[in-house]
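INTERNAL AUDIT FORM
Audit reference: QA-55
Scope: verify that the stored structure record matches its stored sequence.
Auditor: D.O.
Record contents follow.
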Amino acid sequence: MRYGHGDMHGDLYTQELSRKCAASTARARVPCTSGDALCGAAAAVGKLWTGGSGADGKPHTASELVLVMGGSAEAEQIAVLLTSAHRAQMTNVLVLLTDSEAHAKLGTRAPPLFDPKATADGGETGGPIALVQSIESLLVLIAGTDGAASVPTEGALGVAIARYHVLGRLLSMGFGVLTVAPPTVFITDPFPNLYRDADIEAMSTGWDDGSAYGYNHVLDDPSMGFTRFCHGSRIVSYEPGFFFAMPTDEAVALTVRMATQLARPEAKLTSDSSLTQVWEAERTAFVHELWLPSHHEYASVGAVLRVMNYLCFVNSKVLFRQLRNMPSSTKPTAIQINYHSDAVERMQAAMARYLDGDSGPLNKLPLASSSGGGEAIETPLSCSRAEGGGDGSSTLGKHLIANSPYAWGGVGDMVFREGGVLETPWGKGAWALHADDRGGHSVSADFVGAKHNVRFDLESGMGVSTRCGDNNVVLVRSVKLAKERK
C-alpha cells in the first residue's frame, strides 16, 4: 500500500505505520521451562528472523517455524509434505502427531522424535522434528482456557480445536508460526516471501485479483433516485489451513476465538463430523473473525490481515485452472490441495511438475475431483468453434434474444441478437449454440479476443461462463427477467 500516489513521504508514512503496528506489539521469546516438550521442540527447529524495529528502536528477533498437525489418517499426506520441505531445504518444520502410530506410518520421511535431553545437551539442532502429543493434553495448553474438559478430543474437530490451542501457546511464547494443513506442498522456502507487517498472513481461496483481494460490489436501488447506488466490498474466504501468525496479542486472541467458535453448539459439529464439515465451519469462522467489524455484542479480536499472493501461495483451484496451463518456469512458493479430495495424487503431481520438470501427471488429472462431492462432473465444453451464428430457431436462442439484456459478471447491457451478433459493453462479439452440448443448454460467446462457453438454466435465466485459456468463471443473468420478478 502506498500513500501519496508514489510520493516519498507517503512511503515513509507507510513504513512508520507498519513499524508501529506490527513489530512494536510482537512478543519477545520466552525461555522454555523444564518439561515443556512443545516449547522445547519448537525452539529446536525454530529459525531466527530479525527485522522491524520496535518502539524502543531495537530490531525484533523471532524464532519462526512451520507447524503441521495430524494423525494416522493424514500420515500419507504429511509424508509427501515432508518430502517437499526437504527438497525446498526447509529445516524449521515441527510435525505434531496426535497418535504414536502416525510416526511409523510416515515411513522413510519420518523425522526424529523430539528428545529433550539431546536438545539440552546441544546435540539436536534444526529439524524437521516430530512430537507425539494426545489431543487431550493439547487442549489444556493455554492457561485460563475454560471448558477444555467438554471439548471434543477425537476426530477432525478435536484436531482442529487442539491446533488452535497449540498455535496460541506457541505465539504466546514468542514464536512466529506458519501453520499448514497436511495436504501442502512446498516448492521453495516460504519464509523469505513473508511480509511480517500484519498479525495474520493468510492464503486466499480466491482465483483472481477480485476474488482474492476484494472488489467494489455495487447494489442498485432505483427508488432512491440519485443515491441509488450503494458501494460495498466482496471477497472470497481465507484459508485457515495455511497462514502465518506473528507473535502478537491480536494473533493469540484469534486462536482463542477460533477454538471457542468451533466448540460452540451453534457450530453444529461433533467428534463424528467429517473433515469436510469441520473445514467448512472453520473457514466460515476464520473469515468472520478476520473480516467482520465489531457490532452489537460481538467484539472483533482486532487482528490485522494480509492476504497472500494467490499466484505464489496457491490453492488447488488456481493450480488446476490456471497455473498448469502456464510455462513450468512460473513456479509458486507453496501449494495446498484444498479444493480436491484426492489430495495425495495431486500433491505428487504438483511436485513432479515443479520439482522434477515432469508436467505429465499434473496435466492428466481432471479439473475437479472424481469423488467426494456426490455430484456428477460435467464434461468441459470445447473451445473450438463451428461455423455459423446463433439465432432464434432453438429454444435457448429464442430465450436469449427475448430476455436480453444480460448482466455479465455484474456488468449489464449484454444483448444477444439474431444472426449471432453479441453486443457487449466492451465491444461487439459473436454467439452461437455450442455443438458439444447435445441438450442445447450452452452457447459460445466470444468478444474482445476472448472465447467463453456459457451453460444456461432456462428456468432461472442464469448462466455460468467459463473463459477459455484460464477457466475464469462469471455469472450471466437476465436483467429483463430480474426486473419482471421484482
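Auditor finding: record pair retrieved intact. The chain has two domains: 18-307, 395-485.
Action required: none
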